[in-house]
Amino acid sequence: MSELLRVEGLTAGYGAAPVLHEVDLSVPAGTIAAVLGANGAGKTTLLRTLSGLVRPSAGRVLLDGRPLTGVPVEKLVHLGMAHVPEGRGVVAELTVEENLRLGGLWRRDRADANKALAEVYELFEPLAKRRRSAGHQLSGGERQMLALGRALVARPRLLLLDEPSLGLAPKVTAQIMALLKQLRDRTGLTVLLVEQNVRSALSVADTGVVLALGRVVAATGADRLRDDEELRHAYLGF
Amino acid sequence: MDRFVFLTFDGLSKGAVLAAFALALVLIWRAARIVNFAQGAMAVAAAYAAYTVTTATGSYWLGLLAALVGGLLLGALVERAVMRFVDHRSPLAEVIVALGLVLVVQAALGMVYGNEFRAAAAPFSRTALEVGGVPLLSRYDLFVFGAVLLVLLGLALLFTRTGVGLRMRAAAFAPEVSRLLGVNVGGMLTLGWALASAVGALAAMLVLPTELGLHPHAMDLVFVSAFTAAVVGGLDSPPGAVVGGLSVGLILSYVSGYLGSDVTPMAVLALLLVVLLVRPGGLFAATVARQA
Ligand SMILES: Nc1ncnc2c1ncn2[C@@H]1O[C@H](COP(=O)(O)OP(=O)(O)OP(=O)(O)O)[C@@H](O)[C@H]1O
Ligand SMILES: [Mg+2]
Predict the structure, then answer these.
(1) d(C-alpha B28, C-alpha B196), whole Å
(2) What are the tens digits of pLDDT across the range B161-176?
(3) What is the mean pLDDT of residues A196-220?
(4) What pTM, to 2 d.p., does this model score?
(5) Minimal Cα–Cα distance from B251 to chain A, Å?
């Protein structure tokens, strides 16, 4: 399997002291990688550094072998990277339809952008019923659908998801995990999935990466993290 | 009664221009959360560009075009070269920089064109057409209404019907998320400033022929009225700017009609004071809401 995302010696933070320390990562194309770790471990910082919102002080990120150093944030979506930020980032003042359209505005292929939009409405029926509702009128679950759908309108190759299960009922979380699996199997989507909900993340992930205090302390197959009690105890605390 | 009718129509046509100018303030407020206190000086600069072109070519319309294009460019330049580098966490810094810009622009205009009034041409007759013996509206007033209406419609279409408009709104509401979705947020900000400045230039072109003419300080008082109008309208809403503009225009027309035009400048300031007192923090209320 070819490698889609590669991270080498990534060190990054917000002030003088770095939050991430020399993080290495490799995510093969068409797989789901779970990024796990306690609160404050640096998971969000990792995703934000991957998409250029935080500038690394050392190391680099390669997408499909191409270094992303110096690529502006707004160009990454052109390279196939989509980032659903922590808290989802639904634009509260815009309608559901406008939020979704925004996800595909950069695309030259207008016909396919419209097709992708229609597919999102098929995938998330509650959104189709609320096209004209403003973002702030949606429930938490609907917002998550909107954020995810908006990322999918871009037809990304790599999807960065920051805690999609946050505040959602277990049933909705399970649906989202099932959807990720389905997208991986059908379209070859690659996902970097940050989750607090370790069990549900590992239920769909192919590989797992555990962060502690900004360092990678374990990177292995998801099944090992799931089944190896010692590993689980040591790093995931259950 | 005739006088009242006359003053009402006069106020509405004054108000239409104020509405356009207030709209320019609202555009920048929406894009950047800044009250552009340099809007008046920038608009005068664009009007001087029109004056130069009209003097050289003899055509009002080429001059108008020059003012609009000049306004666009000046707005983009001010954002790129100045405002981009101001610390946006401090509203005071932005106000001070804008006021500094006013001084620089006005001094530069004074140096190039001199500090005397120059006639501003009107493309249509300003003689009011009489209806039943009461002078109501001139052809020029109709031109002003038409132009402001066109701008309103154009902006409404831009923001609700086009991809660029959607990008501009998204960039203003949620800059970071917009970048993740491929929106060039910096570019949208520049575009917002350019558009606002062009609308401001148009407002100056419309109002100057009805005032004393062209002068580096010609828009000072108009700016205060338009600012009042924008605050009345809530700063955030284009329809609010229009309602605010028309209201302020009417009030000023009645004041100058019944109390004398000497009182008008004071009335404008008094009105602004009242609005700011009645809507305490109304100016920055939206900022607070957004940060929450
Ligand atoms: N904007 C910021 N400025 C300064 N420090 C920050 C900022 N954001 C996060 N940090 C710090 O960086 C560290 C890692 O934060 P991060 O948000 O990446 O953790 P996380 O693993 O996503 O946690 P959570 O599970 O709670 O979302 C924390 O110590 C946090 O205090
Ligand atoms: Mg986080």
Answers:
(1) 6
(2) 999 999 999 999 999 9
(3) 90
(4) 0.89
(5) 34
Question: Minimal Cα–Cα distance from A21 to chain B, Å?
Answer: 24
Q: How far apart are CA B35 and CA B120, in angstroms?
A: 27
Look up residue A83 and give its amino acid: H
DSSP structure class, residue A236: I
Q: How many CB atoms lie within 10 A of CB B183?
A: 25
- CA-nearest of A1, A20, A89 to A61 is A20
A53:B179 CB<8 A: yes
Residue A39 Cβ < 6 Å to ligand 1: yes
- Interface with A, mutate which of B167, B173, B180 (most A CBs under 10 A): B180
Q: How many contacts does A have with B, using Cβ atoms within 8 A?
A: 64
Atom of ligand 1 nearest to the CA of A48: 18
pLDDT in the model for residue B280 = 52
**Domains observed in chain A:** 3-80+156-236 (3.40.50.300), 90-155 (no CATH)
Closest C-alpha to ligand 1, atom 3: A14
Q: Residue length, chain B? A: 292
pLDDT digits (tens), chain B, 292 positions: 688 988 999 899 999 999 999 999 999 998 888 889 999 999 999 999 999 999 999 999 999 999 999 999 999 999 999 998 988 788 788 889 999 999 999 999 999 999 899 988 889 988 888 887 777 888 999 999 999 999 999 999 999 999 999 999 999 999 999 999 999 999 999 999 999 999 999 999 999 998 888 999 999 989 999 999 998 888 888 888 898 899 999 999 999 999 988 888 888 888 888 888 876 544 444 443 443 3
Reading the block at residue A40, the tokens are: 């404050």
Give CA–CA dist B86/B79, Å, rounded. Answer: 10
d(CA B151, CA B162): 15
ipTM of the complex: 0.93
Q: Does A93 touch chain B (CB under 8 A)?
A: yes
Measured by CA distance, the residue closest to atom 22 of ligand 1 is A44
Q: Tell me how far apart the alpha carbons of residues A160 and A85 are, in angstroms, rounded to a whole number.
A: 8
CA distance A157 to A30: 8
Q: Measured between beta carbons, which residues in chain B are less than 8 angstroms from residue A76?
A: 180
Rounded CA gap, B264 and B272, in Å?
Answer: 12
